[in-house]
Write a structure and sequence with these properties.
Strand content: 5-15%
CATH superfamily of the largest domain: Homeodomain-like
Protein name: Response regulator
Largest sheet: 5 strands, parallel
Oligomer: single chain
Order of helices and strands: EHEHEHEHEHHHHHHHHH
Keywords: Cytoplasm, DNA-binding, Phosphoprotein, Transcription, Transcription regulation, Two-component regulatory system
Subcellular location: Cytoplasm
Structural class: alpha/beta
Number of helices: 13
Main location: cytoplasm
CATH class of the largest domain: Mainly Alpha
CATH architecture of the largest domain: Orthogonal Bundle
Length: 298
């Protein structure tokens, strides 16, 4: 089941959306409800939904800002915006940030919501298929990327402070990380900055200011040139360096998270597990176990 988060400050509207649909028949389940964007973002951090259905106009944090913040933090959840006739400028902004669809609240019906959920279901299925194919292709392409090590872009990617990137084979592979190389000078400049300054506070906004380009344009262009959102790519870089620390040092997990740029311990653990399927502590124990097994065979 794909998880759905309902975000709406008017309780009766939220209840209506929840009750008019047989969610399970379409492969969804309502995993949470929130009354504004602030509550919703906290819930997303604890349990990331596959789909967020959110009102646009809400107190504290509106739906568009929720979408912006979610994208800035690397969440790839699908978004559907609930809107009134007078809110189309907000809808336009939401679509720029990757919202999948919008529904007019005044004309919302079972059919319109079902049609939207079918559309989202196809998007989620396509994403799963592409992720599986991309992982296989990435493993095959990693050796080819190594051959580009002499290029200026690859050299820039290698200049990262912290532990050495040379790792014994018995420590296991790093999670898949495409050392992205692009001919676009501004995006290449951002890539070099990320690999060199991954422990700093890096956001889409700060990178757009760094290359003197519009925030929305940078976000779209980075995804187009690398295949990743900027924050997703940053997380991959940080997790790779965290793995090096876990394998090559006895530093506590919270210290490693801080060194690679995660100021929140729980968030570090969540992102690390998203890429490796293990918590940092579990990963360290797995590596140590493999090393001990190999030593016992010698």
């Amino acid at each position: 089941m794909w998880k759905v988060l309902l975000v709406e400050d008017e309780v009766f509207v939220r209840e209506s959306v929840r009750e008019i649909i047989a969610w399970e028949e379409l492969g969804f389940s309502v995993s949470g409800e929130a009354g504004n964007g602030v509550e919703a973002l906290e819930m997303m951090r604890r349990d990331t939904p596959d789909l967020v259905i959110t009102d646009i106009i809400m107190p504290e944090m509106d739906g568009v800002e929720l979408l912006k913040q979610a994208r800035a933090e690397g969440y790839e959840s699908r978004f559907v915006m609930l809107t009134c006739m007078s809110e189309f400028e907000y809808v336009r902004q939401a679509m720029e940030y990757g919202a999948s669809n919008y529904i007019l609240k005044l004309s919302m019906s079972v059919n319109s919501l079902r049609d939207t959920l079918r559309k989202i279901r196809q998007e989620l299925l396509s994403r799963e298929q592409m992720t599986g194919a991309g992982n296989a292709a990435g493993r095959e392409g990693s050796a080819m990327e190594a051959g580009k090590a002499g290029s200026p872009a690859a050299a820039g990617s290698a200049q990262s402070p912290g532990p050495s990137s040379q790792r014994p084979a018995d420590k296991g592979p790093l999670p898949l990380l495409h050392e992205a190389v692009t001919s676009h000078p501004e995006i290449q400049k951002i890539l070099h900055y990320i690999h060199t300054n991954y422990a700093e506070d890096i956001t889409v906004k700060s990178m757009s200011q760094y290359v003197v380009m519009g925030e929305n344009y940078v976000s779209t262009l980075f995804k187009k040139k690398t295949g990743y959102t900027l924050i997703h790519y940053l997380h991959q870089v940080r997790v790779n360096h965290a793995i090096q620390y876990l394998c090559d040092s006895d530093l506590p997990v919270y210290e490693i998270g801080n060194r690679v740029g995660f100021v929140n311990d729980n968030y570090f653990i969540k992102i690390f597990k998203r890429f490796t399927t293990q918590t940092p502590s579990q990963y360290r124990q797995t590596v140590k176990g493999k090393v001990e097994e190999k030593r016992a065979l010698l």
